[in-house]
Design goal:
single chain; 182 residues; alpha/beta
Length: 182
């Protein structure tokens, strides 16, 4: 895993309004630290205690939870987070409850592996790969407005097939979704 902030997360993180941010499957905390540096209180969740130890820092609360463990319930209430960041992680049974935890004006920033990634290595199990248009369909099904979407090959930090999405809840102001040009 790279400690470099995902360019996708870096580009869309400024859209997240004031409030708490969930970094789901945070790994060593690269995005937790970035969101905390932007002034957010961050809840960093991962099942790996060693990764969480590396995540600790000002403005970051860590929580060791294996959300894929049998019988584990989604630990967060509705409309709790101004932003949710997910990278390199997919566990479909959690998605509906995760999206319910997004505030009415909240921002979802999601980037993970997609079908076709096997040509680049792991993950290659279809259970961990998004199908074509899957993130777009999830956004539509949960009433999110898509700000940006990409589906294709990236070359850094390593070659991979990914889908990435930035989507907002209905109360997010349209004018706030405009970013400076590249």
């Amino acid at each position: 895993m790279s400690d470099q902030i995902s360019p996708w997360v870096q580009r869309y993180a400024p859209l997240v309004p004031g409030g708490a941010v969930l970094d789901l499957a945070c790994g060593s905390g690269r995005h937790s630290r970035h969101m905390a540096a932007l002034g957010h209180e961050v809840v960093a969740v991962d099942r790996d205690p060693a990764a969480l130890a590396a995540t600790c820092g000002p403005g970051i609360t860590t929580s060791a939870i294996d959300l894929e463990e049998e019988g584990v319930a989604w630990p967060f209430g509705p409309q709790r987070f101004a932003g949710i960041v997910v990278t390199n992680y997919l566990h479909r049974p959690l998605i509906a409850e995760m999206l319910d935890s997004l505030a009415p004006n909240g921002v979802l920033i999601y980037e993970t592996f997609a079908d076709g990634n096997a040509q680049f290595g792991k993950p290659s199990n279809p259970a961990f790969l998004l199908q074509p248009g899957e993130l777009l369909e999830l956004a539509r099904a949960h009433g999110l407005r898509v700000v940006a979407f990409e589906d294709g090959v990236i070359t850094a930090p390593k070659a991979a097939m990914v889908q990435r999405l930035c989507a907002v809840k209905p109360d997010f102001p349209r004018e706030a979704a405009l970013l400076p040009p590249f």
